Amino acid sequence: MQLLDPLSAAIVLGGTLAATLLRCGWRDARAALRTLARLAARPFDSTHVRAELAAQVQEIGEDGILRAEPHHFGDGEFDDLSEALIRHRSIKALHEEHARHRERRQAAAESAARVLGEAAELAPVLGLAGTLVALGGFAAAADADYARSIGTAVITTLYGLVFANFVFAPLAAGLARRARAEERERQELIDWLAAAVERSIPREPTDAVEKAAA
């Protein structure tokens, strides 16, 4: 049996991608492709982001939250967080902006995982379909082509299992691990940033609040 059969691999992979697209739709498929593209890029660098945020924290500490200017350094979330912090002068606004970005990232990761999970489920089915097509050709096959038909029937099932368990499922797991690690690092940075600037945000005097309540 020839293990490398480009035609059988193309049939199984193409059929899997087409069936996944029909099941999930263009929107989720595009979201999955964008998320996969980010998987090939460098992971989130919390050390670099912390160093960039340190300049913002230092400025707030020196000039106060009222006179500080937002710092932008290329990370979409933390650029928006800096804008929200300076505009609203509120730790609450910082956490709310972070929650919005986190929800968008989680939605994209879940869409990608769903698409890859569907592909992992469909790949063995398409491999079996290729096997059935090859088996259907046995009756019409000449003696010289009989062994080749047997090999094609077996190899398509093998390709379905390989694509499911060594391509799509590992990609889905890799995306999930990357997403969890990034969320942990971003949350740690948010907590650090909030603690660093909290003392620079003006508050109402406690005595005045207590007198007003009395």
UniProtKB/TrEMBL annotation:
It holds the Pfam family MotA_ExbB. GO terms for biological process: bacterial-type flagellum-dependent swarming motility; chemotaxis; protein transport. Keywords: Cell membrane, Membrane, Protein transport, Transmembrane, Transmembrane helix, Transport. The keyword Kinase does not apply. The chain crosses the membrane at residues 6-26, 122-142, 154-176. Its main location: membrane. One of its GO terms (cellular component) is plasma membrane. It is found in: Cell membrane; Membrane. It is a multi-pass membrane protein. InterPro entries: MotA-like, MotA_ExbB_proton_chnl. Belongs to the exbB/tolQ family. This is Chemotaxis protein MotA.
